[in-house]
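Pasting as-is:
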Amino acid sequence: MPISNTLPAAALPLDMIIFGGAGDLSVRKLLPALYMAHLHGNLPPSTRIIAVGRHTYDRAGYIEFVQERSQPFIEAKNLEPEAWQAFLGMLNYVAMDVNDASSYAELARNSRPGVERAFYLATAPTLFTSICDNLAACGLVDSNSRVVLEKPLGHDLASARQINLEVGRHFNESQIYRIDHYLGKETVQNLMVLRFGNGILEPLWRAPNIRSVQITVAETVGVGSRAGFYDGTGALRDMVQNHLLQLLCIIAMEPPVSLDPDAVRDEKLKVLRSLRRMSLGDIARDTVRGQYVSGAVNGEAVKAYRDEPGVPADSRTETFVALRTYVDAWRWANVPFFLRTGKRMQKRLSEIVIEFANPPFSIFPDTPRNAGNRLVIRLQPEESIQLQLMAKQPGSGMTMLPVSLNLDLQSAFSQRRAEAYERLLIDVVRGRLTHFMRRDELEAAWAWADPILEGWEELRERPLQYTAGSWGPDASAALLAREGFSWME
């Protein structure tokens, strides 16, 4: 999906104000994404980027910091000297304590009047309320303002509601962009086209034609420097409640009446409200929590989660989750959705597997186990779509073997493919909300996840151990095997 470089004719100049402007997210993702948007003409004329942080940089010191820390995250082929110098010329830096209302006067002096302001809150969510209160108090919030809220958006339903309430005092819902970078991935956005732009799939996209759906987001990395955040969060809050549920929504939603943001988000909300709520018995039977112990990933020895710096020796935080759930709607009656995510897994992999029903009767001898058709949608590391069919093995006899029809999305299109954050930041600039979560969506996702978290607390079971570099605890495979399924690995 190429990005148009045509901006609205009446686009105002933009002040992009990034709170946490010297933080890891800004260094690795936001600043490189904004440079790429600038390089391809997707930022309004006279754009300025104002980074806000606690470090006491002056402007020259911040530019030196960006040159040293952010530039390595931009591919060498995209570093055009003239464009890079022009991008550096957009940058400014304001050192301030975001909880100190008086320090916002300096920010106000640095932001121009009569511009569109986009506030990107790349900070802990505990600071969202204070930042929005102080921005409004110093007169920086107006009808041309937008605010981008980085995840995690709350720790549970109550805290998510509180954040929504506090931010909503100063910004209308149409001005709030709750970002989930998975929704900016090319292949995720292509799911909409795959589902609703191809008439061949729609008659089959339902029970009983589909037996099961698998969604896997596996990481090879550990917690790294995020132990302080991660140990109070865990895999369900960090990944399932947002990334995996958003993927599930796109797979399970009904066709929207248009691509209008609310039309799309209305259908996703219906899916979230149709997700079957789990009882304590369901949680004990249909969820698996894991925590990695020492092992090897990509041939290198790695330490156990509890040995990572900043992790308590008795931590009960899950680094792996697998679960079975259902969407209680006619289209998906009795179709299990299996979700799985974890750190220190055998392979970095994000994919969706749609398993179609087997023929009601096989006339072929020696039919292989799991001989059904599958649609495999790979999101990372490479982006591809495979349709797995059965074909006759060459030679005498009628022995079947699985074969794949492959669509390599990276080689199918010659246009440049923007990264997720670049695509979503351009959406913010252009006021497109389709790929951002609405307030009721966020709260519906937490309403489903909260009982699972509470059930784990009540059950008081420790996460199962799994060796780093594996596919998680054995119980994850057993979760599917008892119903005649298996993870596609």
